[in-house]
């Protein structure tokens, strides 16, 4: 392969296949809300299946019936669809990735015992890391203009994230985690996961790669794709649980993202080997900068775009095929759980599964869901204090054999200290730079006195605790910043998360 660096000029088309456009508007959300029925439940023990079915309030309507119903709807019905109130179980599910739902059998046994910490190993998985540049400037523009309100900012953020998330779901991806203005997506299918991820990236760069907002701020995309082994870690306390991906694939996708400029798609050599034979309107461009040749890791810059007429028609066909397959599995699952729930459910087990699902959500989010309040009320420009913790880990003292236990130990200590000082641990990531934890002080329902003072005291306690009790940590670095930040639920109604976006967060991460 030629190692020279070159660029491709491509004139993208603007045609969207009408059938695909209709599917995007009408079916994607409902289909995705029921994704657990076909993907998760068959892997669980029969009694646990019934518990999860009841907890998530999954109906018996097939996806084919949903498609038929939606095909009869007009555009006005689509608009009214957004006002629907979904069952609490489905709203909770929307905040949890499939890869977690699919591993419920690793987290709870038939007796209802919660098995945390736990982990699941994937030999091969495809990761797509998507970073949006411009969101920080967007939030500042809205916060500095007295004529612009939080409702307009929320609408702009979610209209953009809605498109990104819905396309990833349409290409059979799974939104693993939102990290501020970034998204980590997963394709667990070894057969064509890399192909689906790459086609999704091409479409997103063409349609969303340069998006001008109503205040003149242009949002750009940086996309990285990697393929390889991954370990899914499940950690946490009785009150709050979390999920983290670790492994070579996570490190590779992070390296690729660091090489990205806005508008780029960069893939690893492992991805390239899987997609090199595909006939796409693009060109592979080898990159030599900052590549670890000892590990034979070669990033490939990707330029171009998909042909809408050709590609999205095929996606529509695949979606119809997928609906038929899901319908068949639904019939099997409905047969397995056809008896009345009250006849077979152990109330204690039901409550434990219900609590397990809820424990993956922040308390302020679940309280709104339980009260059947719109999550839009959580969206606000709020003055908060952010603490970013980065841990450099000793590879000699922290091996693959004790990784999960060590992450659990660190998570619990940071969580408990942060909680004691009135903050909340919101995110945890394991990248090549070490382990990163994001804590926020001043969120609704957690505020306690002087948030800035509490955050500084908490940072000091965490720093001291890490050095004394975690000998596998070589270095603990903590940054604290306070300021006006966007806090709210972003994403798609089928997959969303509570996150914080703002310059203070970016500043403290860089520090």
Main β sheet profile: 9 strands, mixed
**Judging by the overall fold, what is the CATH architecture of the domain at 372-510?**
2-Layer Sandwich
Task: Find the count of extended strands (DSSP E, 2+ residues).
Answer: 14
Q: Which CATH class of the domain at 372-510?
A: Alpha Beta
Instruction: Report the span from N to C terminus.
Output: 39 Å
What is the overall silhouette?
globular
Q: Over all CA atoms, what is the radius of gyration?
A: 23 Å
Mean pLDDT: 72
**Structural class estimated from helices and strands:** alpha+beta
> What is the third-level CATH name, the topology of the domain at 372-510?
Alpha-Beta Plaits
What does this structure look like?
The strands form two sheets. Strands 1, 2, 3, 4, 5, 6, 7, 8 and 9 form a nine-stranded mixed sheet that branches. Strands 11-12-10-13-14 form a five-stranded antiparallel sheet. Strand 2 (174-179) and strand 3 form a beta hairpin. Helices cover 44% and strands 25% of the residues. It has a domain at 372-510: 2-Layer Sandwich (Alpha-Beta Plaits). It has 21 helices and 14 strands. With 511 residues, it is of the alpha+beta class. It has helices at residues 18-26, 28-33, 35-39, 46-56, 63-72, 75-81, 88-93, 98-101, 104-107, 135-144, 150-170, 193-208, 248-259, 269-275, 308-336, 341-344, 347-358, 363-370, 403-420, 451-469, 503-510; strands spanning 118-133, 174-179, 182-187, 210-212, 218-236, 241-246, 265-267, 282-286, 300-304, 380-393, 423-431, 434-441, 473-492, 495-501. Helix 10 runs antiparallel to helix 11.
